[in-house]
């Protein structure tokens, strides 16, 4: 397995708060990797650190052979790595139509054939042309999340960082989005790094996952291990019980 | 395009209100129409709009509408005539000039002051605020220091000083007011930028590799725009009043230009016996700035989805 | 089992520029001293139902019902004052997000005491004592400390417990919990549910539990109402969830991925227009 | 309401910068000094061609007309109780000359300098003071100058006890400020009233001087209350909050005069208002243009409206009442004639000029009226309004085109106005001379000579003839469009008795006033 | 950077953070003052008024003019003048005002209290009347009451204050005789009454001089009410808007669910939350009145700092302008600081733990 994303000894501080404490991870090419853990454990921060949106104080990140330092990211980096955010209500610019939002990455990177690309991207996420000129407030959460995915895909990245892409959605819509993600991954041979607090979702989509607590990775294991309860860490076990629902 | 929607089976209203627009134009018009619907539901706001439109029309057709020459008076025969004397509907001033005609021509000055100040101060404030807010760090510190200095400086003193330095005249008054009125816009834009800066959609644009310049210009600024527009409209009244205040202190317009504030200033000498000389321009200022305020208030409700949602 | 609350053909409508929005379209059910779950996707009218019972819909809402009866009292005919006396005292409601439903500038203790002193004339010291006891009852470890904290100083789970304490301090006969745990972490979620469960069991309250999580509701409640587009499409015992007949209910159950299950792609809901009819 | 023992006047005295008689040269200060200080001689308010003695018992001139000897009245006292001696008189002169403030030139024009003043102005004995001048001037001229407030006698003992030491520089060679700092707001005189307080733009408070040697004033206190506007003065007067309104404009004057319980009084003052044309501007330097502008003022309409009651149309530079003043009024509004003259000068299509105007009435009104009438002849006038000091700065730097100003006689002698309007000893930009002629770059060596000759003409009739000639020449050809002579007005409550305005600003006496 | 070092560093950072905050505040303060100084200095140099003229008057001899020019350092290069100026200010010497010949500090000590008194009066009225009106309008949203309150506010926003002041003066003084003549105090008292704090109303009450207090009140009431109206317009409008925002919050629903009365919800819960941003609004409007009442002061001959600066400016009396500017600037900064502090105490979320 060749690693496409390598993270070693990563530390992130917010002022004095140690949000990521010595995180080391490696994600293989075309692998789907999950991150679970309680709220505030640093899952989102990890993704944002990779994307250059969090203040990394030390540690190394290697992405597709390119060593990255600090917060600066090359232009090429953004064509390799894209991200989908948790809140579909907050990740789309409220004053721009879908068309504008999809056009923007193309304009930034000076990509020419905008028209067919936009149409293709919308098609791919299952939105018809009737959505093209809508504003975010004219769409449902699931539809917005599809637009966010389309926006991430339009630059044809290799790695997609997914930060709880379905947690704001209804169960039924969640299924649709999960299916969509699976499909685009297959079609494009993408590498996924996905955050979720729902073990069901993670095991559904990912082959391997890491469990995080208090800014550390406490355990890395495969989905199969989890399904058959082959876990070492207490916290992982605790999470598993909790996700089975309420019991008196 | 016109044929497009005349042959279409849907009504124009439905076309505008459609939640599945088929073109950029339709989407944009639809949004504007929604705003208009919200706006027009507010009667006071419509009244404000009416007042402003009337002002603009009066300014455009001043030459046609004004019954007399606004600057040439009849000192000997027509001085300080009360309203309704002869054909002087609103009376005459101390140079024997028709007050109505002066008010009509003065609307041009008022409009120019308001328009130009808005055009100078608002973009300046917007630029400073968004850049400071987005860049953070020392850029923010420096820009905000400058803003604070201008904020802490007594506004009218600054304006007075500028007019005194540059010489009187409406252009300089405009510059002076513009120079004193941008800091609040910068503050506001910065606050708004700070709110927007950490949002996911800005993060998404950064992840596209867009330059900070592009982010500020195309993504942050539009977010500040609607509150800026509202604020500017509401400030228009303040601008008119400041200009009038400068005129009142003898520093705004040059005689004989019919600037309303200066008209009040020269009319106040006669307030005891010839009340109309100072009262008429006062009413004009009140009406116009009321118009802008009503308009701004209505725009705020129409543009701010938080308020309009209820 | 005597009915605490009887709802018959409850409707909630909102007049808007583009016509009447029907948020709730004729919901009927009765509630005894039991745990009744209401599930449904977003926008199906769950919260509106709860709020209509409380009388907390916004003023422009039009609320009608053939019957809205709480222990023999016609809620729709009751004066605002009478309804206010009911609220917090006999019917209470826990809102979804503790972050927003606690007054940010008042200490938690004061907010709890306030409920108590609104409905019962007790001395300050007595009120404080009871508030502390209530905080303890919702399993807050250090009630004295939390009593003096502001909402932003406590975690989501603690905030939600404080909210529950605030609503239960007057020993209401009925509690409406509108998605009380969906803002919380999975592990915390279960703790809060545990507390609710114990309180209902010990005090004999009627509970309406609103959620969009079918699995959670089924494991927590006695009875479940499934809502779709402002209507109840199915009502069933929690234990009989697996025998649900309505395709909507089945679909909701099916589309959730579970650990150790391999269904690719996941089944999705195929909404039929006749469901909403 | 105003207290019974106090006279309250509403007065726009924003020109006061100091109440030190050795420093002050402003019109409002003249009134204060006039009421609070004594001088050797005074202008006779009833007959302005005469001077009368005040501190002096008698005076005489030597035959060579160079030495003036004054004998003081006996037993005079300052307000402080110190006796008034010739020493004080000499000190007052020395002080004014050495301080070298604005009014010092009145004395230095007689050849007094810091170095020789102790010699030339000295006390021979406690009651005898002699002044030696450098040329045999007409005695009327010298005595008229000595009535100016700069010659007010200050209390040497008191002043020097308050004097502050200063470090001498090349510019100021003395080691004391001669009490200037103290006297700016303080008082060391012997007049009927003493200055108790001057608060800039708020009030000037005078109190009766118990040591006054003359007839004691009737009222205990006089308060000048700063009020800028005519309308508010009138309002306050009508309400009885002030007893006298000093800056009434024509309309308000009329109303006050008709109102029961109120009266008005007026007195012509030695101040003329004029529009001047800067000769540095080549267009304005053409004689035809100068003349044309004189036809572009609507004298009659202005006289009937804007300055009605507060001024009389007057076209020569000497105010009525001064020696040699003539009343010629050859000009009136005549657009056709002006056009013709302009065409002759090559401005068939008109010309554009700027016009620096103070923000004060009636000048602004007159300027606006002129702007309108000039427009009829194709002269485009751009008014640049400004505060007094601002327009003055420009005027003094000779950077204006047109300027509207006034000139009040520094002392009641024709030379004051003649010198400023007709003499320009050095027309260069860095000239020391700042007369109106210089300020408008009007280079007139002949007129300058003629003006100087009038000074040495001892015969009054001949002297008057020279001034008449000068006035005619200025009327015909100067860059000064003289419009009117000021009439000072006041409205007052009829409770106030004996209120009168004098012929000059330092003769607006309040010590004779009483109240019912 | 190694891990251990960074953790230790963070801990140290926490303890120095307060120190750092204080330091930053001082830097802010100093730079703002320096900025004010520089701007004032600059204004003084560009104004086309010869400052010597203001000192000597129009007819001074050339020698005197040259002497004063040298005394004032006007013949030095600009930067040297600025340095001298700064040095002077730093040593606490604001110079003497040319216009009044008093030390500027003395003048300020007289005129600032006048403005302070007026502005405080206005702000009190604006707050006491404005807040209830705003609350009322928000609670009765879209009713006639709401529209009426809005209109009152909007007119207050739109009316030229100097014009209204003139009309009111005419009516209440000229016609009705309800209020006293422009100025702070009647002539009769001006020279018998010795103020202590220079806030006349307060002084008179402290000294139990009831007739003086009444007279002072009759003077201040009209300009004070006019300023109060302007501030009321702003405060009521902002109160309404903040109340509306707060009324839409979930905690209001929660409070209703508790069975609280509407009145208690509005006044104890909602207004208490709206008060947090309102503090800033009131402080801003107060600051605005402190600096911006030049026009009112002109009409009412109120010897305040606005009038003082305006008069000084017109005489190029830059010492006085600077003094006034710094006072107003300081008042602005102080009010900002105060509102910040109040904000912190009112809003537990920003309170330091
Ligand atoms: N910009 C920031 N400034 C300060 N602290 C931050 C910031 N972003 C995150 N944190 C803190 O870092 C910690 C980790 O946050 P993160 O968002 O990574 O958690 P998470 O695992 O994604 O949680 P959740 O499941 O709630 O999304 C949290 O305690 C959070 O408060
Ligand atoms: N004030 C209002 N005006 C108009 N429509 C409203 C209003 N409040 C709610 N609605 C509508 O009523 C419907 C039901 O809303 P409700 O809040 O009950 O949904 P819900 O089932 O609780 O959904 P969620 O799970 O998202 O909370 C929605 O379609 C909503 O748009
Ligand atoms: Mg997260
Ligand atoms: Mg809900």
Automatic annotation (TrEMBL), chain A:
<feature type="domain" description="ABC transporter">
    <location>
        <begin position="5"/>
        <end position="239"/>
    </location>
</feature>
<protein>
    <recommendedName>
        <fullName>Glutathione import ATP-binding protein GsiA</fullName>
        <ecNumber>7.4.2.10</ecNumber>
    </recommendedName>
</protein>
<dbReference type="InterPro" id="IPR027417">
    <property type="entry name" value="P-loop_NTPase"/>
</dbReference>
<dbReference type="InterPro" id="IPR003439">
    <property type="entry name" value="ABC_transporter-like_ATP-bd"/>
</dbReference>
<dbReference type="GO" id="GO:0005524">
    <property type="term" value="F:ATP binding"/>
</dbReference>
<dbReference type="GO" id="GO:0055085">
    <property type="term" value="P:transmembrane transport"/>
</dbReference>
<keyword id="KW-1003">Cell membrane</keyword>
<comment type="subunit">
    <text>The complex is composed of two ATP-binding proteins (GsiA), two transmembrane proteins (GsiC and GsiD) and a solute-binding protein (GsiB).</text>
</comment>
<dbReference type="InterPro" id="IPR050319">
    <property type="entry name" value="ABC_transp_ATP-bind"/>
</dbReference>
<keyword id="KW-0472">Membrane</keyword>
<dbReference type="InterPro" id="IPR003593">
    <property type="entry name" value="AAA+_ATPase"/>
</dbReference>
<dbReference type="GO" id="GO:0005886">
    <property type="term" value="C:plasma membrane"/>
</dbReference>
UniProtKB/TrEMBL annotation, chain B:
<feature type="transmembrane region" description="Helical">
    <location>
        <begin position="109"/>
        <end position="136"/>
    </location>
</feature>
<dbReference type="GO" id="GO:0015031">
    <property type="term" value="P:protein transport"/>
</dbReference>
<keyword id="KW-0571">Peptide transport</keyword>
<dbReference type="GO" id="GO:0015833">
    <property type="term" value="P:peptide transport"/>
</dbReference>
<dbReference type="InterPro" id="IPR035906">
    <property type="entry name" value="MetI-like_sf"/>
</dbReference>
<keyword id="KW-0812">Transmembrane</keyword>
<dbReference type="InterPro" id="IPR025966">
    <property type="entry name" value="OppC_N"/>
</dbReference>
<dbReference type="InterPro" id="IPR000515">
    <property type="entry name" value="MetI-like"/>
</dbReference>
<dbReference type="GO" id="GO:0005886">
    <property type="term" value="C:plasma membrane"/>
</dbReference>
<keyword id="KW-1003">Cell membrane</keyword>
<dbReference type="GO" id="GO:0055085">
    <property type="term" value="P:transmembrane transport"/>
</dbReference>
<comment type="similarity">
    <text>Belongs to the binding-protein-dependent transport system permease family.</text>
</comment>
UniProtKB/TrEMBL annotation, chain C:
<dbReference type="GO" id="GO:0005524">
    <property type="term" value="F:ATP binding"/>
</dbReference>
<dbReference type="GO" id="GO:0055085">
    <property type="term" value="P:transmembrane transport"/>
</dbReference>
<keyword id="KW-0547">Nucleotide-binding</keyword>
<dbReference type="InterPro" id="IPR003593">
    <property type="entry name" value="AAA+_ATPase"/>
</dbReference>
<keyword id="KW-1003">Cell membrane</keyword>
<keyword id="KW-0067">ATP-binding</keyword>
<keyword id="KW-0472">Membrane</keyword>
<dbReference type="InterPro" id="IPR050388">
    <property type="entry name" value="ABC_Ni/Peptide_Import"/>
</dbReference>
<dbReference type="Pfam" id="PF00005">
    <property type="entry name" value="ABC_tran"/>
</dbReference>
<dbReference type="GO" id="GO:0016887">
    <property type="term" value="F:ATP hydrolysis activity"/>
</dbReference>
<dbReference type="InterPro" id="IPR027417">
    <property type="entry name" value="P-loop_NTPase"/>
</dbReference>
<protein>
    <submittedName>
        <fullName>Peptide ABC transporter ATP-binding protein</fullName>
    </submittedName>
</protein>
UniProtKB/TrEMBL annotation, chain E:
<dbReference type="InterPro" id="IPR045621">
    <property type="entry name" value="BPD_transp_1_N"/>
</dbReference>
<feature type="transmembrane region" description="Helical">
    <location>
        <begin position="320"/>
        <end position="343"/>
    </location>
</feature>
<feature type="transmembrane region" description="Helical">
    <location>
        <begin position="118"/>
        <end position="139"/>
    </location>
</feature>
<dbReference type="GO" id="GO:0071916">
    <property type="term" value="F:dipeptide transmembrane transporter activity"/>
</dbReference>
<keyword id="KW-1003">Cell membrane</keyword>
<dbReference type="InterPro" id="IPR035906">
    <property type="entry name" value="MetI-like_sf"/>
</dbReference>
<dbReference type="Pfam" id="PF00528">
    <property type="entry name" value="BPD_transp_1"/>
</dbReference>
<feature type="domain" description="ABC transmembrane type-1">
    <location>
        <begin position="112"/>
        <end position="339"/>
    </location>
</feature>
<dbReference type="GO" id="GO:0005886">
    <property type="term" value="C:plasma membrane"/>
</dbReference>
<dbReference type="Pfam" id="PF19300">
    <property type="entry name" value="BPD_transp_1_N"/>
</dbReference>
<keyword id="KW-0812">Transmembrane</keyword>
<comment type="similarity">
    <text>Belongs to the binding-protein-dependent transport system permease family.</text>
</comment>
């Amino acid at each position: 397995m060749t690693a496409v994303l390598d993270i070693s000894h990563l530390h992130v501080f917010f002022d004095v708060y140690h949000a990521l404490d010595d995180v080391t991870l490696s994600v293989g090419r075309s692998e789907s990797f999950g991150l679970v853990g309680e709220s505030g454990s640093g899952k989102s921060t990890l993704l944002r650190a990779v994307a250059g949106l969090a203040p990394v104080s030390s540690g190394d990140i290697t992405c597709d052979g390119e060593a990255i330092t600090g917060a600066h990211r090359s232009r090429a980096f953004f064509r390799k790595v894209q991200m989908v955010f948790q809140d579909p209500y907050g990740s789309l610019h409220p004053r721009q139509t879908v068309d504008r939002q999809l056009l923007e990455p193309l304009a930034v990177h000076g990509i020419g054939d905008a028209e067919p690309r936009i149409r293709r991207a919308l098609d791919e996420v299952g939105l018809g042309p009737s959505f093209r000129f809508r504003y975010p407030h004219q769409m449902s959460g699931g539809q917005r999340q599809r637009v966010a995915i389309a926006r991430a895909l339009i630059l044809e990245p290799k790695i997609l960082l997914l930060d709880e892409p379905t947690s704001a959605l209804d169960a039924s819509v969640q299924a649709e989005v999960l299916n969509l993600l699976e499909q685009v991954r297959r079609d494009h041979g993408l590498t996924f790094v996905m955050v979720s607090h729902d073990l069901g979702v993670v095991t559904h989509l990912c082959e391997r996952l890491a469990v995080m607590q208090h800014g550390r990775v406490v355990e890395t294991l495969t989905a199969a291990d989890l399904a058959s309860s082959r876990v070492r860490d207490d916290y992982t076990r605790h999470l598993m019980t909790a996700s089975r629902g309420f019991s008196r | 395009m016109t044929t497009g929607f005349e042959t279409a089976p849907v009504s124009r209203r439905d076309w505008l209100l459609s939640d599945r627009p088929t073109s950029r134009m339709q989407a944009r018009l639809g949004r504007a129409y929604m705003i208009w619907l919200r706006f027009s539901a507010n009667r006071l706001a419509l009244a404000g709009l009416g007042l402003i439109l009337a002002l603009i029309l009066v300014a455009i057709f001043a030459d046609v509408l004004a019954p007399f020459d606004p600057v040439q008076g009849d000192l000997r025969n027509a001085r300080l005539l009360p309203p309704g004397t002869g054909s002087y509907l609103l009376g005459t001033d101390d140079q024997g000039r028709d007050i109505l005609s002066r008010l009509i021509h003065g609307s041009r000055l008022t409009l120019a002051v308001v328009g130009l100040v808005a055009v100078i101060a608002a973009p300046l404030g917007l630029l400073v605020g968004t850049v400071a807010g987005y860049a953070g760090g020392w850029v923010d510190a420096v820009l905000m220091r400058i803003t604070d200095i201008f904020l802490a400086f007594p506004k009218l003193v600054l304006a007075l000083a500028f007019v005194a330095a540059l010489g009187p005249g409406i252009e300089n008054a405009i510059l002076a007011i513009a120079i004193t009125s941008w800091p609040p816009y910068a503050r506001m834009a910065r606050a708004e930028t700070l709110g927007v800066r950490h949002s996911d959609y800005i993060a998404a644009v950064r992840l596209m590799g867009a330059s900070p310049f592009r982010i500020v210009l195309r993504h942050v600024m539009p977010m500040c725009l609607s509150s800026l527009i509202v604020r500017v409209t509401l400030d228009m009244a303040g601008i008119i009043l400041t200009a009038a205040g400068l005129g009142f202190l003898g520093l705004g317009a040059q005689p004989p230009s019919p600037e309303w504030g200066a008209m009040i200033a020269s009319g106040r000498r006669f307030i005891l016996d010839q009340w109309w000389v100072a009262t008429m321009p006062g009413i004009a200022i009140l009406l116009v700035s009321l118009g802008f305020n009503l308009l701004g208030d209505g725009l705020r409700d129409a543009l701010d989805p938080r308020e309009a949602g209820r | 089992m005597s009915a605490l609350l009887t709802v018959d053909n409850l409707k909630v409508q909102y007049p808007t520029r583009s016509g009447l929005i029907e948020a709730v379209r004729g919901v009927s059910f009765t509630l005894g001293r039991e745990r009744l779950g209401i599930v449904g996707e977003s926008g199906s009218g769950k919260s509106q139902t709860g709020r209509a019972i409380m009388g907390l819909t916004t003023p422009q809402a039009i609320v009608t019902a053939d019957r809205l009866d709480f222990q023999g009292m016609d809620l729709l005919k009751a004066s605002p004052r009478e309804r206010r006396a009911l609220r917090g005292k006999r019917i209470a409601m826990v809102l979804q997000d503790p972050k927003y439903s606690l007054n940010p500038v008042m200490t938690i203790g004061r907010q709890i005491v306030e409920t108590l002193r609104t409905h019962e004339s007790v001395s300050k010291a007595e009120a404080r004592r009871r508030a502390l006891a209530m905080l303890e009852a919702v399993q807050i470890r250090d009630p004295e400390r939390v009593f003096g904290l502001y909402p932003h100083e406590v975690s989501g789970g603690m905030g939600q417990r404080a909210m529950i304490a605030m609503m239960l301090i007057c020993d209401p006969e009925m509690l409406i919990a509108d998605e009380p745990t969906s803002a919380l972490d999975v592990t915390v979620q279960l703790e809060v549910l545990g507390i609710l469960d114990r309180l209902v069991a010990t005090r004999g309250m009627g509970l309406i539990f609103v959620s969009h999580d079918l699995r959670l509701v089924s494991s927590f409640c006695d009875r479940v109402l499934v809502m779709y587009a402002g209507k109840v499409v199915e009502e069933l015992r929690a234990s009989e969830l697996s025998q649900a007949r309505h395709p909507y209910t089945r679909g909701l159950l099916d589309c959730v991925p579970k650990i150790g299950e391999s269904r690719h792609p996941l089944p999705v809901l195929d909404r039929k227009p006749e469901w909403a009819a | 309401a105003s207290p019974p023992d106090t006279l309250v006047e509403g007065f726009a005295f924003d020109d006061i910068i100091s109440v030190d008689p050795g420093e002050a040269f402003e019109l409002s200060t003249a009134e204060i000094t006039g009421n609070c200080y004594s001088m050797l001689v005074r202008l006779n308010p009833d007959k302005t061609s005469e001077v009368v003695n005040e501190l002096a018992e008698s005076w005489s001139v030597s035959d060579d007309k160079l030495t003036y000897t004054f004998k003081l009245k006996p037993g005079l006292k300052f307000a402080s109780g110190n006796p008034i001696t010739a020493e004080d008189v000499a000190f007052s002169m020395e002080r004014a000359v050495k301080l070298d403030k604005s009014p010092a030139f009145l004395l230095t024009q007689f050849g007094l300098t810091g170095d020789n003043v102790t010699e030339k102005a000295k006390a021979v004995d406690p009651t005898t003071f002699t002044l030696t001048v450098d040329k045999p001037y007409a005695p009327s001229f010298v005595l008229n100058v000595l009535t100016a407030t700069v010659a007010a006698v200050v209390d040497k003992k008191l002043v020097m006890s308050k004097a502050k030491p200063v470090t001498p520089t090349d510019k100021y060679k003395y080691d004391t400020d001669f009490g200037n700092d103290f006297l700016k707001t303080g008082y060391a005189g012997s007049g009927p009233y003493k200055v108790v307080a001057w608060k800039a733009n708020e009030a000037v408070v005078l109190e009766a001087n118990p040591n006054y040697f003359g007839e004691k004033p009737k009222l205990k206190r006089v308060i000048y209350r700063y009020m800028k506007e005519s309308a508010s003065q009138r309002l306050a007067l009508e309400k009885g909050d002030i007893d006298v309104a000093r800056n009434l404009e024509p309309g308000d004057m009329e109303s006050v005069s008709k109102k029961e319980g109120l009266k008005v009084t007026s007195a012509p003052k030695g101040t003329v208002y004029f529009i001047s044309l800067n000769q540095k501007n080549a267009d304005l330097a053409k004689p035809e243009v100068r003349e044309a502008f004189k036809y572009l003022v609507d004298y009659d309409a202005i006289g009937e409206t804007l300055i009605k009651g507060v001024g009389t149309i007057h076209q020569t530079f000497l105010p009525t009442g001064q020696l040699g003043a003539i009343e010629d009024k050859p000009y009136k509004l005549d657009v056709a004639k002006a056009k013709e003259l302009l065409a002759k000068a090559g401005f068939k299509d008109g010309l554009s000029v700027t016009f620096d105007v103070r923000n004060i009435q009636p000048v602004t009104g007159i300027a606006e009226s002129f702007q309108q009438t000039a427009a009829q002849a194709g002269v485009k006038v751009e008014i640049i309004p400004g505060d007094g000091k601002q327009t003055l700065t420009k005027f003094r730097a000779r950077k204006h085109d047109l300027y509207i100003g006034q000139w009040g006689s520094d002392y009641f002698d024709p030379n004051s106005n003649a010198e400023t309007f007709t003499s320009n000893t050095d027309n260069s930009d860095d000239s020391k001379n700042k007369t109106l002629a210089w300020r408008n770059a009007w280079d007139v060596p002949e007129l300058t000579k003629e003006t100087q000759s009038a000074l040495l003409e001892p015969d009054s009739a001949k002297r008057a003839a020279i001034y008449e000639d000068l006035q005619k020449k200025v009327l015909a050809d100067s860059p000064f469009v003289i419009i009117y002579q000021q009439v000072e007005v006041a409205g007052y409550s009829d409770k106030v008795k004996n209120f009168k305005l004098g012929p000059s600003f330092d003769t607006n006496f309040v010590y004779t006033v009483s109240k019912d | 950077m190694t891990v251990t070092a960074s953790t230790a560093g963070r801990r140290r950072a926490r303890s120095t953070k307060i120190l750092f905050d204080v330091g930053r505040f001082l830097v802010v303060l100093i730079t703002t003052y320096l900025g004010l100084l520089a701007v004032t200095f600059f204004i003084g140099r560009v104004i086309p008024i010869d400052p010597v003229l203001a000192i000597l008057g129009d007819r001074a001899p050339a020698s005197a003019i040259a002497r004063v020019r040298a005394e004032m350092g006007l013949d030095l290069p600009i930067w040297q003048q600025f340095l001298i100026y700064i040095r002077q200010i730093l040593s606490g010497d604001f110079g003497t005002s040319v216009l009044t010949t008093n030390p500027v500090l003395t003048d300020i000590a007289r005129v600032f209290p006048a403005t302070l008194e007026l502005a405080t009066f206005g702000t009190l009225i604006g707050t006491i009347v404005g807040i209830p009106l705003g609350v009322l309008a928000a609670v009765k949203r879209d009713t006639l009451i709401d529209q009426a309150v809005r209109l009152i506010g909007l007119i207050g926003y739109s009316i030229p204050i100097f014009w209204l002041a003139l009309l009111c003066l005419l009516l209440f003084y000229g016609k009705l005789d309800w209020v006293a003549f422009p100025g702070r105090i009647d002539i009769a008292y001006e020279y018998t009454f010795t103020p202590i704090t220079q806030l006349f109303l307060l002084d008179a009450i402290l000294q139990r001089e009831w007739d003086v207090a009444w007279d002072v009140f009759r003077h201040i009431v009209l300009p004070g009410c006019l300023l109060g109206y302007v501030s009321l317009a702003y405060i009521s409008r902002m109160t309404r808007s903040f109340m509306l925002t707060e009324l839409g919050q979930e905690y209001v629903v929660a409070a209703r669910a508790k069975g609280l009365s509407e009145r208690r919800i509005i006044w104890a819960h909602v207004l208490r939350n709206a008060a947090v941003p309102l503090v800033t609004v009131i402080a801003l409007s107060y600051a605005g009145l402190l600096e911006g009442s030049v026009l009112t002061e002109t009409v009412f001959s109120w010897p305040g700092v606005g009038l003082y600066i305006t008069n000084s400016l017109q005489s190029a009396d830059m010492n006085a302008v600077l003094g006034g500017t710094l006072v107003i600037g300081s008042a602005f900064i102080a009010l900002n600081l105060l509102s910040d502090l109040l904000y912190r105490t009112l809003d537990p979320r920003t309170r330091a733990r």
